[in-house]
Automatic annotation (TrEMBL):
Organism name: Rhodoferax aquaticus
Lineage: Bacteria, Pseudomonadati, Pseudomonadota, Betaproteobacteria, Burkholderiales
Highest taxon of the lineage: Bacteria
This protein's name: DUF4178 domain-containing protein
One matching Pfam family: DUF4178
InterPro entries: DUF4178
Residues covered by the DUF4178 domain: 64-200, 278-416
Length: 501
């Protein structure tokens, strides 16, 4: 009886420089020479050079080629790496070889991960990308999904072994769908017919990844350049940064094209000072976070655009956990994380269910970013607008933001100001941090039935009339108008804290 031939590594000289190029996976058809960056294709026992790839954009990932882990009881090893660019930033896909010789994809976007397995397509053809409208629902292989993203993307660099390679720099469509059980279905239109992969979000700890790159290998000095508006020296501390603000002139500087690309800027006036300084370290929910970005946002009801309310968002970063948001609104503080799955929204839009919890619609409104400072992993712009909905369940909030190309969900939980002050060692500013902290007045129950509520309203109105004369400006303050923002994440972040995966 014949026995299965064990898989063996294959090595051949690079046709560009003569250095050895290794193939470990039998399914790998392409590889990138680590010496001269030549893209080579394997044709039998001969390698042919088909071009050269750009240097990898150093995103300071903890992953590296050769790292290994386990997925659903089966071991895997990372053999290749593909970097893509889309409208709001970049993301990385790692080629993983499973123990049975098949390949999978570990997508990485700013510290969050999705492990995906190629899927056979259904009997009928996959529709064109233009047929998938963001926010709509559709069925693939008999499963209902919500369309979360429809983007034009392009491959910008590659490394290691690759099963297939889209044309470098050529734009193609990528559609991403989400299910109620947090599955992620990606449709890649760089091939015909389109390729489909099904995945789930996972942390590095859940994947039991070993062989991670030592964080000490990172260049902690950062990249330096001059502000294109005023010439002041600027430093990028995070290599995932797509935009940052100049501390001298408050301009928003776009670095999404890399340091070699054209630097674009937008001038900002009326600077808003964050209560928690950029760079501050804080301990929240058992994890150490650093404040890397801050933005002030403004909301208004579509039925009455003259009524505005403002809130603020701090972007927090951890090397292994990625990014989360600390939201400061008139109703209190909350910690917000991107949601992986697609909540099921009731037909009348008045409720949504996510991971077994039912949330009730609190408000619908339009949101706009009107001031930013710090570094951001997506290409932030002043004036960015989204359509938003907030659903509540007790102290928890489920928020939806929709732009023409993306629909993102985030889940948040409220916390009192004392917790925020302790987390960031700001006890001396505790009075400034106080809000309508979690308690009876922020309950979902209607407070107007209570007599003390009306006494409170009268006193507040008198104080506002006599001392402030309606001077509160929602462009720079957390002002309450027709509504008040409870929680929510920022444009550009969903399952993995970024605009994709």
């Amino acid at each position: 009886m014949a026995t299965e031939t064990p898989q063996r590594a294959y090595q051949a000289p690079c046709p560009g420089c003569g250095a050895p190029v290794n193939f470990v996976s039998a399914q790998s058809t392409h590889a990138v020479c680590s010496y001269c960056q030549s893209m080579v294709v394997r044709k039998g026992d001969v390698l042919a050079r088909i071009g050269k790839v750009a240097e990898l954009f150093d995103d300071h990932s903890l992953l590296q080629l050769g790292a290994s882990g386990r997925w659903k009881g089966q071991s895997f090893t990372l053999l290749g790496r593909l970097q893509y660019r889309y409208g709001e930033g970049t993301w990385t896909e790692w080629v993983a070889m499973l123990a049975d010789g098949s390949t999978a994809t570990l997508s990485e976007d700013n510290g969050a991960y999705v492990f995906s397995i190629p899927q056979p397509t259904q009997q009928r053809p996959i529709p064109a990308a233009s047929a998938f409208r963001v926010g709509a629902t559709t069925a693939i292989n008999g499963v209902s999904y919500s369309v979360a993203s429809n983007q034009s993307v392009a491959l910008i660099s590659a490394q290691g072994e690759l099963a297939r390679v889209p044309e470098l720099g050529a734009a193609f469509d990528m559609v991403e769908l989400r299910s109620a059980d947090a599955a992620v279905l990606s449709i890649d239109y760089s091939t015909q017919p389109p390729s489909v992969a099904l995945g789930k979000a996972a942390t590095l700890d859940e994947l039991t990844v070993t062989g991670l790159r030592d964080s000490s290998q990172k260049d902690e000095k950062g990249r330096q350049f001059s502000c294109p508006n005023c010439g002041a020296p600027l430093t990028l501390n995070l290599n995932t940064t797509k935009s940052l603000t100049c501390p001298s002139c408050n301009s928003i500087v776009d670095v999404s094209q890399g340091m070699g690309g054209e630097l674009k800027h937008a001038i900002q006036d009326e600077p808003v000072q964050p209560l928690i300084a950029l760079g501050t370290m804080g301990q929240l929910q058992g994890t150490q976070w650093q404040v890397v970005g801050f933005q002030h946002r403004m909301g208004y009801a579509p039925s009455d655009p003259d009524e505005h309310f403002g809130w603020e968002e701090y972007l927090l970063y951890n090397a292994k956990r990625g990014f989360i948001f600390l939201v400061d609104s008139t109703e209190g503080w909350s910690v917000v994380r991107p949601a992986t799955g697609a909540p099921v929204v009731a037909s009348n839009g008045q409720s949504a269910t996510y991971l077994g919890t039912r949330y009730t619609l609190k408000e619908s409104y339009s949101a706009e970013t009107n001031y930013v400072v710090g570094e951001f992993y997506w290409q932030v712009q002043r004036g960015q607008q989204t359509s938003n909905r907030d659903y509540v369940s007790g102290k928890n909030v489920l928020s939806m933001e929709q732009s023409p190309a993306e629909l993102t969900w985030s889940v948040g939980s409220q916390m009192d100001s004392a917790t925020v002050a302790k987390a960031f060692k700001l006890q001396d500013k505790q009075e400034l941090l106080k809000r309508s902290d979690v308690g009876a007045t922020s309950s979902t129950k209607n407070p107007v039935a209570r007599a003390d509520f009306w006494v409170f309203v009268v006193v507040v109105v008198l104080i506002l009339v006599l001392s402030r004369c309606s001077d509160c400006d929602p462009n720079v303050e957390n002002c309450s108008g027709s509504g008040s923002r409870t929680s929510g994440g920022s444009f550009g972040g969903f399952s993995s804290g970024g605009g994709h995966k």
